[in-house]
Amino acid sequence: MARRSVSQLGENESVNEVFVASSKQLRPNRQGNLYLQMQLSDKTGIVNAMMWNANDSIYKRFEDGDFVRIQGTSQFYNGSMQVIVTQIEKVDPNAVDQSDFMQLSPQQVEQLLKELAAQLRGIRNIHLRNLAECFLIDESLISRFRVVPAGIKNHHAYEGGLLEHVVNLIQIAKAIVPFYPQVDEDLLVMGVLFHDLGKVDELSTDKGLAYSDEGQLIGHLVSGVSIVDRLIVEAEKLSGEPFPQELALRIKHMVVSHHGRLEYGSPKVPMTAEALALHYLDSLDAHMHGFDKLLADDANSDSNWTSYSPQFGRKLYKGSGS
Predict the structure, then answer these.
(1) For the CA atoms of the chain, what is the radius of gyration?
(2) Structure pTM?
(3) CATH superfamily of 6-98
């Protein structure tokens, strides 16, 4: 019997399926009774889940990142689907088809890495190409980069998501550069590579998708600049000469300004042509990916409109389908 995925959950349906559990919390309600709150996921999406009348024993049955079999009922609540859980048990990973929980297959990840390497080794500026090579030969960095998501919820929120986001952005960047001759293509490509690289330290996939302690305390912009600084040192060793200071400043400026606005977490706003282009291209790719996912996951199947999206601050029009 085919499994029921997150995206196939309908309102007021019985649920008896295996998911990945994450973000579990044991919390008291207003009367002081404990309930278990968590997220359940597979390759099609994430759904919030609640288990009333829980206790510490139930909480300790599984850890974040474990496969669990859920029994319960789905319901539509505050514009989103959720699952009210009545039974939960940990499942042996060997009894699970891992492909049901992977947005990108290992083969797809390898192909994306090959595409990324080809793009980076095609950089014309020798200093930037050396810097890119130092990234590509850093096995520890690549091993984390290939699995980390681009985010926890809003876009590319799955293992390999950051890699896919970066490869997409490089292709988009190269497509628009001919229309803006003031933009340095090689520099923009390096900005795309490094803009979210700090997420290898900010985010963790060990126990589901979650923020690490470094992510909570420092964030990926600061971590990203640290990685750039470290790779510049390696590039200087590789070339035997100093890395141009202005190039280093321009790269790090793109990292710290790519959110575009101070209130969005950037300590600086874009002040170079490449930084401005990176901000808008990054925003475009993230929002279009989030748009498509919202349309695909929307539980409001009887309407031409999605439910209200906190990410977009509006409902989205799905069309009549005619």
Answers:
(1) 22
(2) 0.80
(3) Nucleic acid-binding proteins (2.40.50.140)
